[in-house]
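In keeping with the milestone schedule agreed at the kick-off meeting, the structural modelling team has produced records for the first pair of proteins. Each record is given below as a sequence line and a C-alpha cell line. The laboratory manager (R.T.) confirmed that both were archived under the project's standard naming scheme.
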Amino acid sequence: MKSVSVLLAAASVLFSAPALGQSGMAPVHPVLDATLSRSAVPTDKSEWRFTITMTNEDGVMVGRFDGTRPEAERWQLVSPALDDLSEMQSGMWTGLQEPDEDEDDSGLFFSADGSDIVPGSLTLADEAGDRLVFNFDPQLDEDDQAMADHVQGALTVSRDQLAVTQLRVWAPESFKPHFAVRLNRFEMVQQFDQLDGLPAPVLTRMSQEISGRAAFQTFEQSFELTFTDIEYLGTVTVD
C-alpha cells in the first residue's frame, strides 16, 4: 500500500510500497514478532498469477494478471470491454498497469515494510483467544499529512496461525482535511488469508469507503477489490 489518501489507487495495493524499515523495529510481542518474520517472503512479479475483481457504484470490472507473460502483456482485461469502462474504472485499470519506482518485493504476501506502518508504533491493544490486535500510526505521504492527526491503524494477527489476518486504517471521527472538505467516514480494510500451498497469508480482499461533504455537496465513494485464482510460482518452502 502506497498511501491511505482519499484518492487511493488500486495500483498501490500491488507490488508498490515505500520501504519503511519496520523489519528493524524493537520486539513488541512474541506472536507479532514471529508473525512478521514468517510473512517476510521476498518475491518477484513473474511468480504470480491471479484474478482481480473491482466492484463499485459503476459496476464490476474483472482483470487477470499473469507474471509469466511479457511485461506489456501481463495485465489482461476480462470484462467489460475497454470502451465500456467508466471513468473511474478506466483510471483504476490504467493505474494497475503503470510501473512504479517504489516497488515492494512482497507481491500479495503481507509485508510490514510495505504496509504504511510508522516504525516503532505498533502496540498491543486487544488480546482475546486466537486474535491479537495491535494499534499503529499510519505512514502517510506528504500530500496526505492533513489526515495524519485523524486516522489510526490496527493490525489483527492470528496466534495459532502466526499470520496477519487484517489491516485496517480508519478515522474514528469526522474531520476536515481541507477547509472546504469534511470527511464523515474514512475506512480502508485489507483482508489476508492463508491458502493451501502458500508460505504465508496473501491479500484476498481490500475495501475502501469514503463519505463527506465538499463545495457544499455531499459525496460517497466506495470500492472493493477481491483477489481470486491466486497462484504463487515461487519455490519458498512451506513451514
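The second protein of the pair:
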Amino acid sequence: MTRRPRLHVSSSCNNNKAPAAAANDDDWKFDRRNLLVGLGGMYGYGALNPLLASADPINGPDISSCGPADLPDNVDKLTNCCPPMPARIVDFNQLRRPQQSAAPMRVRRAAHLVAKDEAYMAKFTRAVELMKALPDNDPRSFLNQANIHCAYCCGAYDQAGFPDLELQVHSSWLFYPFHRCYLYFFERILGKLIDDPTFAVPFWNWDHPDGMQMPSIYIADQNSPLYDRFRNPKHMPPNIVDFNYGTGSDDSSVLDAQQLMSQNLTIMYRQLVSLGPTARMFLGSPYRAGDGPGPGAGSLESVPHASIHFWTGDPSQPDGEDMGSFYSAGRDIIFHAHHGNIDRMWEIWKTLGGRRRNFSDPDWLDSSLLFYDENAQMVRIKVRDCLDTRNLGYVYQDVEIPWLNSRPTPRASNNRVMRKGKKFDVLVNEEDEAMATPKHTEFCGSFVSVPHGSHHHMQEQKIIKTEMRLTITELLEDLNAEYDDQILVTLVPKTGCEGVKIGGLKIVFDS
C-alpha cells in the first residue's frame, strides 16, 4: 500500500521592504509578510474550473477583434500591437514547402559557434537589416514580427468564438507550439529576404558552459542590426548567465564563474529530468476553447526561460525592456536565439525516455494559431503541424549536453522532515532557507513570471489565477524520504510577491 505523506507548509517571512522603483539589480526585494498562504486545497484556475471532456481546441485568435494591448504605464498607449488585416487566411497544409521536396534541411547552429563564420554572419546581418527596413504596413517587417509577441501575450486578442475572453499563449500547453511556429515563420521570412531557403537562425546555447554568456554576435557592434541598446550592461561578457536570477540576491556576485556554470547545469537537469517526467509537467497545463488564460506553466517556462528574459533585459528601464517584458521582448533579436534554445529543449526532452511524450489530446493537436508567412499571407497552423521539426525543414546542430549528468545532491545526508515579475522558491524537507541552493536536492523549484498585461476589455481586472506543479518523486528518493509519513514544504518569496495569494498546496499521485 502506497503511503500518502502529510504536507506541512511554512512560509519564510523575512522583513525586506520593497523599494519605490526597481531601477537596479538589487531592487528585487519586498516585504515577505504580504505573501498569503492558505491550506484549503489547490487554488488556481485549474482547480476552480475543471476541464470538461467535451471542450474544444482553441481556434486561434479573432483577428477582427484585436484591440489595444494592456501595456505598462510608461508605454505610449497609442502603441498598436495588432497585425495588418489579412485579405484571406490559408491553411498551412495547403502550402507547398520547398523543404518537403529536394531542398536541404536547415541547420540551426549555436550562436557562440557562428561568430567566426563570416559568410553566415554576413547573411544573418543582411537578412535582419532588410527586415528592419520593411515598411510598417508590411506584416513581415521587424516591427510587426516583434508585435506578434505583444499581441498574443498582452491581452490584445480574443479567443475566436469567445468575445471578451483573452487568448494567452503563456502558462499553458500552447507555450512551446506558439514559440516554435513564431520562430519558424520569422526564419522563413529572413530566408526569403536574402533569397536563401537554407538560411537558419542561430540558437543561444545557454545550457552549455561555452554558451552561458550573452553571445558576442549580438553585442560586438553597436551599429549592427543585431544590437539592442536595452540590455543589462552589467551582464555583458564575460559575465555568466544566472538561471536563478531574480532571487533578491545576485548569485553571480557570490559564486565564481565555475560555480555558477555548475549550478546552471544542475538547474537544467532539475527542470527537464526531475520536474518534467510527463507532458503536463514539461509542456504545461491543458488550455481549451472557453478556458481562462494561464492554467499553468511547464517546468522550463519559469526557469530558466523567464529568468533569462529578466537577466537580459535592462533593469534601468521602467519595465526591464526589452527582454524583461512581454510586450517588448520581441524587439530584441536575441529573443529569437533564446527561444531557439527553448525549442531545442523540447526536442531533447522527448529523447529522455520514460513518459516524456507529447500530448495525444486532440484539443492540443487541433489548436491553431495565425501567423504571416514569407509571402505576406496569413497562415493558420495547427499544433499537430509543428510537432516534427524535420517536417518544418530544420534541425539543430548536434552539440554536447553536459547537464544530463548534473543531478542535484542532497545538502545533508538522509535529511528528514523535522527541519513585478514574481518569483518564489519551493523547498522540501529544508528548515533553513538560506542553506538550500539550486544545486541541492531540497531545492524543488521556482515560480517565475515575466510581466504581461491582461485582456483589453478587462483592464480593471488584474488578478491572474494559475497553478504551479512540481514533481517530487526523484527528490524524495534522493532524500531517502519516499516512505516518510510527512514532508515539509517551505515557500520562499523572492521578487514582487506583494499581495500574492497562495490558496493551498496538495500532493497528487499521478499514475
